[in-house]
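INTERNAL AUDIT FORM
Audit reference: QA-55
Scope: verify that the stored structure record matches its stored sequence.
Auditor: D.O.
Record contents follow.
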Amino acid sequence: MKIMFCAALILLTLSRTANAADSNRRYLDFLSDAYGCGEIIAIEDAEKAARDRNPGIAPDAFATAPANNLVNYIGGFLSGLNAVSNVYNVYKPGLISAYYSIGKFCRDNPSSHTTDAIFKIISEPNVAEKNSPLK
């Protein structure tokens, strides 16, 4: 019984450290967005500026780390949706198309959030193909 109590106490202690604040005393909430549309627009603008300086970058590659991080976030979000849905691939046009479609959505709706953009492009996948440079 003591072993189970100690194990439960250790697990509770460890779970509290997972909720610790970052250096700016902000807590990450599971349902909050990592990116707001304002951040996405800034990332896209920086990516465009980097591409203008180096025009040899392929459309399916990224010149800046923040753009690459955003694409990884989108990919993780879509993977999570795949895991909890009964659909094998919730977004067939692909990750690069998703990135450009989310950027377009955010320019049209700057006060929205990443989740709003992702659910919008999932509901209208043909729109995403129009926004992709990989036609």
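Auditor finding: record pair retrieved intact. Residues 65-84 form the longest helix (20 residues).
Action required: none
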